[in-house]
Design a protein that fits this description.
With 77 residues, this protein is mostly beta strands. Helices cover 0% and strands 62% of the residues.
């Protein structure tokens, strides 16, 4: 069976989002404090790579594209 596509990955102090046409991206820590709130007026048509240094912990990543919205939980260790 095919491998599932990883949508969000954090490595080497870079957040990589494998999703097309991202309109809005918000990253918050588990207490609700917003770390990044980014709006793309010209949506990126492929991977989004953000250089960011996240401390160890749990984060919620809210992504809105042209077609859908979803939340991804990210653990940084």
């Amino acid at each position: 069976s095919p491998q599932p596509i990883t949508i969000v990955k954090y490595q080497n102090k870079e957040l990589i989002i494998n999703k097309e046409n991202i309109r809005h991206l918000e990253i918050s820590d588990i207490s609700g404090r917003v770390i990044i709130n980014k709006i793309n007026y010209s949506p990126i048509s492929n991977n989004t790579i953000l250089p960011i240094n996240l401390a160890n912990g749990a984060y919620l990543i809210n992504i809105t594209t042209d077609k859908e919205s979803f939340t991804h939980k990210l653990m940084v260790m």
